[in-house]
Amino acid sequence: MRIVALAGGIGGARFLRGLRQAAPEADITVIGNTGDDISLFGLRVCPDLDTVMYTLGGGINEEQGWGRADERFTIREELAAYEVGPSWFTLGDRDFGTHIVRSQMLDAGYPLSAVTEALCARWKPGVRLLPMSDDRVETHVVIEDAEGRRAVHFQEWWVRLHAQVPARSIVAVGAEDAKPAPGVLEALEAADVVILPPSNPVVSVGTILAVPGIRPAVAAKTVVGVSPIIGGAPVRGMADACLTAIGVETSAGAVAAHYGPDLLDGWLVDTADSDLDGDLDGIAVRSRPLLMTDVDAAAAIARAALDLAAELGS
Ligand code: FO1
């Protein structure tokens, strides 16, 4: 079976670990969000690609959900001693290794997709990890505060401002001119099912779908999504701040409607939202526990998504 999943960061990566366990014989391609990418200290950092690679490769800092396990921060200390910022984005020594290798390859002219393949040769994530595009796409957030109205990089809004300053708008800069990375449309074309993990529907899945060509290629397939919102609140992260920014209510039903019946065939919601069970504007909704408390729980959710896809695809 050929499965394609559109993934963002922490929630998406944890779901994928379950998907890999639920369908060990499947050929899984992950299309990763690159809108969170940021250039720091002369290096290119790809948080969502790294979170998937580290989580599936066994190198993730498990409690944080991002960054490397068994980290040290000597480089960070040295940068602080030089008063070279930003200090609000924590990069560990081991993580710097990834960004140095990636940046060296990018500077040598390799596209991000080739770089990601090279990094995955070490981590062996057990899935094919493709960036959504080799072209630069960066999510910026327009805010209004004491310093006036301005755009900040998503990471500054997310990490330094904790998404506490309301976003006037969220813009995937460059998305309209970006092309799907090599292999992305081919993987979607060949897919038996496309899964939308419980990633941030705006800045993760939404950004991937904003790359011209990807949304129609996904919509042509049987698509099952997993709600990142349970009982009106995001499971983790601050998806509610992103949803509010685009005028979407923070609920499992509103996110399904936001994706739309032209995209979604099935939608898994938590038992807290079982009132949605049945047909939601053409989308088949099923409820089950959605908390990914461990890999087995994530695998059970992934299994349910695949079962729903089989039911709908037949
Ligand atoms: N998230 C934080 O809340 N604080 C950080 O200092 C931080 C650093 C960081 C470094 C590398 C990396 O790959 C991810 C990092 N993240 C951090 C998480 C990151 O902001 C989010 O994982 C994604 O961008 C959103 O999915």
UniProtKB/TrEMBL annotation:
Q: Extract the Gene3D superfamilies matched here.
A: CofD-like domain, CofD-like domains
Keywords annotated in UniProt: Magnesium, Transferase
Keyword Transferase (UniProt): yes
| Single Gene Ontology MF annotation | transferase activity
Name it: 2-phospho-L-lactate transferase
What organism does this protein naturally occur in? Answer: Actinoallomurus vinaceus
Q: Which gene encodes it?
A: cofD
